[in-house]
Amino acid sequence: MSESSATYGPSALKTWANGVTIARLLASPGLFVLIAQEGATWGVFALWTGLALTDGLDGWIARRQGTTRSGAFLDPLADKVLVLGALVMLVTIGTFWWLPVAIIAVRELGISLIRVHWGRLGLAIPASPTAKWKTAVQAFAVGFALLPPTAEHTPWLATTLLWVAVVLTVVSGVQYLMAGRAATTTMTADR
What we know:
By secondary structure, the protein is mainly α. The chain has a single domain, classed as CDP-alcohol phosphotransferase transmembrane (TM) domain (Four Helix Bundle (Hemerythrin (Met), subunit A), Up-down Bundle), CATH 1.20.120. It has seven helices and no strands. The chain has helices spanning 16-38, 42-65, 69-92, 98-120, 129-146, 148-153, 155-190. The model is unreliable at 1-5 (pLDDT under 50).
């Protein structure tokens, strides 16, 4: 079987999808440095866009070659590192206010810790459509903050998208907690 048509079992670590995810993780610090040093430039915007698009690429590859437990862990981790790191850097250079970024960061950290706890119990709560929209809106907020024309002429657009992302972040967090609570109640009742 050729590598391009390989399928992987659920415990595989060395997969093409994981390779894309790990590359995104490794490239993220370089993006953060560029945001801090250059702010909104075409080069930084292009790097952000490329890294943000790899999220869809690794998912596409994983669906064709087989999803893995490692990928289910690494992909959301890479997403959080990329988005939160970019948001924090945008706060440090004065593009965004710290409060919406702090709300997003607290939710992401809290849900990640709960996800680990539930994972130890054998529960895997899938992402809701709201959570997927949250991720997309966060990415667009960062993108518009780094796109030179909008950063210079319409900075309110990125700020507005950031606040929309905050609302979606809180709503999806509540949805996740409710789904997890229902699953743990059902699991406890089945025992």
